[in-house]
Design goal:
The chain has one domain. It is built from four helices and no strands.
Length: 83
């Protein structure tokens, strides 16, 4: 088993100490089990979805606009040329 030194805010350390005491564990054991549970939960959930990125990708992959030529929008010169 590895020993690890961590730093934390005094208020956080006080709260962790209280929660560890309530659980009947040392701070070290409490922190180790909390981190282990978080890692287990993270691996069960799989990668987190980025909903905003998915929405943008859906929008950009949607139907093409009628003004598009060869899969691209016309340039300013092409849009404004006189015919």
């Amino acid at each position: 088993m590895k020993n690890v030194t961590i730093s934390m805010d005094d208020d956080l350390a006080r709260e962790v100490r209280v929660q560890a005491a309530k659980a009947g564990k040392s701070m070290s054991r409490y922190i180790a089990e909390t981190v282990e549970a978080a890692l287990r939960q993270s691996s069960e959930d799989g990668p987190k979805r980025n909903e905003q990125l998915e929405a943008i990708q859906r929008f950009l992959s949607g139907p093409k606009w009628s003004m598009m030529e060869s899969g691209r929008m016309p340039t300013a010169e092409e849009r404004n040329e006189r015919r």
